Amino acid sequence: MKNKTQPTQQEIQLAPQDIIVSKTDLSGRITYANRAFMRIANFPERDLLNVQHNIVRHPDMPRGAFKLLWDTLKAEREFFGYVKNMTSEGSYYWVFANVTPDYDARGKVVGYFSVRRKPKPSAIQTMQAVYQEMLDVERRAGPAEAPNASVAFLVDKLKSLGTSYDRFILSL
Q1: Do the domain assignments include residue 7?
Q2: Which domain holds residue 23?
Q3: Does residue 142 sit in helix, strand or coil?
Q4: Among 5, 82, 124, 130, which residue's CB has the most CB atoms within a 10 Å radius?
Q5: 152 in a domain, yes or no?
Q6: How does pLDDT run across 140-172, given as a tens digit for each residue?
């Protein structure tokens, strides 16, 4: 379920000690949310459990960013990224996210863990510009091709800078 709340310009700043943790099933439905997640996103647990994690998706985030996340997870690799999320009342907050596959005792992926923390202001500034470019590419490409077009744009941009996505993100 996507969040139908209208975004505001009110920013929520994470404290350095804030660690947001959630767990999802294979399709991205939340199966666990820690108190920091509930407090910062301003959702009670009952409104988060068994709901798609995109309930906190901010419309300033390009679809390609999430395609990259899901492609990485489906390849059973961990994902790092900067994400602008939205609270239940429309405020926003930035996080540096680390999402990893969750394996059962037999080595089968059964879901995903996500740990988010306060990002550096310089990283947010960089990513806002990148995400704006990706959103522009998505608008030009149209809804059906938007995610693929913006991922291709990002990969080409980083290649021209002589780096990969992972190296770029971790260097911020």
Answers
A1: no
A2: 19-171
A3: coil
A4: 82
A5: yes
A6: 999 999 999 999 999 999 999 999 999 999 999
Tally of structural domains, the chain: 1
What is the C-alpha to C-alpha distance for residues 70 and 120, in angstroms, rounded to an integer? 24
Q: Is residue 68 part of a domain?
A: yes
Any idea what the CATH number is for the domain that residue 105 is in?
3.30.450.20
Residues 169 and 81: beta-carbon distance below 8 Å? yes
Q: What's the pTM value of the predicted model, to 2 decimals?
A: 0.94
- Residue written as tokens 């990513």? 127
Reduce the DSSP state of residue 109 to 3 states and report it.
Answer: strand
* Position 2 in a domain: no
Q: Which long-range contacts (CB under 8 A, 24 or more apart) does 129-135 make?
A: 130/154, 130/157, 131/60, 131/61, 131/62, 131/65, 131/84, 133/157, 134/62, 134/64, 134/65, 135/60, 135/62
